[in-house]
Design goal:
Order of helices and strands of chain B: HHHHHHHEEEHHHHEHHHHH
Structural class of chain A: alpha/beta
Oligomer: heterodimer
CATH architecture of chain B: Orthogonal Bundle
CATH class of chain A: Alpha Beta
Structural class of chain B: mainly alpha
CATH topology of chain A: Rossmann fold
CATH superfamily of chain A: P-loop containing nucleotide triphosphate hydrolases
Number of domains of chain A: 1
CATH architecture of chain A: 3-Layer(aba) Sandwich
Radius of gyration of chain B: 21 Å
Number of helices of chain B: 16
Number of helices of chain A: 10
Helix content of chain A: 25-40%
CATH topology of chain B: ABC transporter involved in vitamin B12 uptake, BtuC
Order of helices and strands of chain A: EEEHEEEHHHHEHEHEEHHH
Strand content of chain A: 15-25%
Distance between the termini of chain A: 55 Å
Strand order of the largest sheet of chain B: 1-4
Number of domains of chain B: 1
Shape of chain A: globular
Number of strands of chain A: 10
């Protein structure tokens, strides 16, 4: 199993003081699939994301990416290993244009030294041209041409979501972490997002690991789904399997006993 | 209104984006090159000060306006540069060598001062840098064998390879060359990956980090570059003033410098120079109108400080983008006439950001 997995987590545990945010979570993400984490609020999905992008360090457990121990890597090296992410509450560079945001996404590919940049040596100029060409590919892919020179601070929410996705793609990742890609989007924008996520996997060959609440989006794009509740794994399987899993139904809707206790005594 | 048809990536990379830039910057450069002949002795001295403060402002702009790190101790870097230059000039070092050493020494001090910046931010960084400013001022005053202490240190004229800048005109050209070179370096940095990394750190550290930007490295780099520019400005300042004493590099000077970049407009290279013009020009303006005011106001001792404070408050309240922001609005008004709308520069409130990750 470990051999063919792009990312494999084993027994992850995160403890914030007395709170066990994630407990004994393990899963394998295979190359070329869309793997989705679902679960009610506070289930620990975003915490798992923050473990993978090394913002948090787990109190126990292992994380392997592409045969390397991810926990031995510094947070700023994660992008260089081919893992890009988006954030639940958009974290774009607000006072920069869309183009600049995407150019920052290419940061890990920079070759020039600070000294050569100070005089803007010909090599720097050429590197800038190449960077721009790469960024334009992403702009074309996600239809962002109209917003190229717009400040992010002036963009509507739906477009920002796409810009953040574009910035993650600009890094040239192998594994893309999407934290609630459809939150705050309307039905049409969610449809576009689903379309793009499939394109990212099928055309660009990027593996996607996402957290998502919108079950219609989840079942449209996911190959496998992992349901979590209160920091623990509830179920793992295809979207249909997980949706009909009794534990998942219970976590979202409550048990029959809970329902009867809510009824007015007759 | 100007429409630019973009047909090549180079159009976004090159410094002058269109013919208008080429023309107006050429006019500006020509005016600066001929200044000694059409400006009086006094005007030229003021212009030299603007260039010097503009250079220091560039450094602070890089740090505060582009990397989002505030420093209330920048006068100390100015001082390190000034004293280094003063000492080396009296030893007979040629100007380029002593200038490089002044910049290098300031940068080294900047790296050390930048260390707390890796851990604290905002107001706390302000306090840390302010404390450094006090320490530096104290060192300038106490280390008498080197700095001359409170008795002061007189500085020789600029000299290199047998040439001496005697008089204000040659020195003005020295300042002009240094300032133009510094500006080019800063502008080049800002249009390359390093400058973009600074902006990324300013706007969102968490996402800068997940884009692969090494926060500690770039914050330190920003501090070092900023301090080096302040040091270069300090070196020029030493030659302009010709006499150094510790109180020139006190907290008031630091606040003046920060005031300069805030009023000029955080996040713009132009802002550094507009702020310098403001900082040098305001005392002149006050002196000019002083006699027209009733004595109770015009001769009041704290008039300058009050005006500075009032102007700063007015800018923070009404024009947070500073003089450069105001200029952008005026320009847009003319470009779009008669279609300018009032709300055009209004920004949407930032969406709630994830505080959990801080």
């Amino acid at each position: 199993m470990r051999g063919d997995a792009l990312l494999s987590a084993r027994n992850l545990q995160v403890r914030f003081g007395g709170v066990l945010a994630v407990n004994g979570v393990g899963f394998d993400v295979r190359p070329g699939e869309v793997f989705t984490l679902i679960g009610p609020n506070g289930a620990g999905k975003t915490t798992v994301f923050n473990l993978i992008s090394r913002i948090y360090t787990p109190t126990a457990g292992t994380l392997q990416y592409d045969g390397q121990d991810l926990l031995a890597v510094a947070p700023h090296r994660i992008a260089g290993m081919g893992i890009a992410r988006t954030f639940q509450n958009i974290e774009l560079f607000e006072h920069a244009t869309v183009l600049q945001n995407l150019l920052i996404g290419r940061h890990i590919h920079r070759r020039s030294s600070v000294w050569s940049e100070m005089v803007f040596a010909p090599a720097v100029r050429q590197a800038e041209r190449d960077t721009r060409a790469k960024v334009e590919e992403v702009i074309d892919f996600l239809d962002l041409q109209h917003f190229r020179d717009t400040m992010v601070a002036g963009l509507p929410y739906g477009v920002r979501k796409v810009v953040e996705l574009a910035r993650a793609l600009a890094t040239g990742p192998k594994l893309l972490l999407l934290d609630e890609p459809s939150s705050g989007l309307n039905v049409e924008e969610t449809g576009d997002m689903a379309f793009w996520i499939r394109d990212i996997v099928d055309d660009l060959g990027i593996t996607v690991l996402m957290v998502e609440h919108d079950m219609s989006l989840v079942s449209r794009v996911s190959d496998r789904v992992l349901a979590m509740n209160q920091g623990e794994v509830l179920a793992l399987g295809t979207p249909a399997e997980v949706q009909s899993h009794p534990g998942v139904v219970e976590a979202y809707l409550g048990t029959a006993d809970d329902v009867s206790s809510l009824r007015r005594p007759s | 209104m100007r429409f630019i048809l973009k047909t090549s990536y180079d159009q976004d990379i090159r410094l002058a984006q269109h013919g208008g830039h080429v023309f107006w910057y050429a006019v500006l450069l020509l005016a600066l090159l001929t200044a000694p002949w059409w400006m009086g002795e006094y005007g030229l001295a003021q212009l030299t000060f603007i260039l010097i403060y503009g250079t220091v402002g560039l450094g602070l702009m890089l740090l505060s306006g582009y990397t989002g790190l505030f420093s209330l101790g920048h006068a100390a870097f100015l001082g390190v540069g000034a004293y280094t230059q003063g000492l080396l000039a009296s030893q007979g070092w040629p100007f380029p060598a002593s200038l490089a050493l002044a910049a290098g020494l300031s940068a080294a001090v900047g790296v050390v001062v930048g260390l707390p910046a890796l851990r604290v931010k905002g107001v706390y960084l302000g306090i840390a840098t302010m404390a450094f400013g006090f320490i530096a001022e104290e060192v300038f005053a106490r280390w008498e064998s080197v700095t001359g202490g409170n008795a002061g240190l007189s500085v020789a004229q600029v000299q290199m390879f047998g040439w001496t800048a005697d008089g204000s005109t040659p020195f003005y050209f020295v300042c002009l060359v240094v300032t133009v070179l510094c500006t080019l370096v800063v502008v080049n940095l800002l249009r390359s990956p390093t400058g973009r990394a600074f902006v990324a750190i300013r706007d969102s550290e968490i996402s800068a980090q997940s884009m692969g930007i090494h926060l500690a490295r770039y914050k330190t780099l920003s501090f070092a570059t900023s301090a080096a520019l302040a040091g270069i400005g300090g070196a020029l300042y030493a030659h302009q003033i010709r006499f150094l004493s510790p109180e020139q590099f006190n907290i008031i000077q630091s606040i003046d410098l920060l005031l300069m970049v805030v009023i000029g407009g955080l996040g713009s290279v132009h802002g550094a120079f507009l702020g310098a013009i403001f900082l040098i020009g305001l005392p002149q303006a006050i002196a000019a109108v002083k006699d027209w005011l009733p004595d109770a106001i015009g001769q009041a001792p704290g008039l300058k400080a009050v005006v500075y404070g009032a102007v700063l408050i007015a800018f923070v309240l009404f024009e947070p983008l500073g003089l450069y922001g105001r200029w952008l609005k005026v320009r847009t008004w003319f470009q779009m006439f008669p279609f300018y709308r009032k709300g055009m520069f209004k920004r949407q409130k930032a969406f709630t950001r994830s505080d959990r990750l801080r």
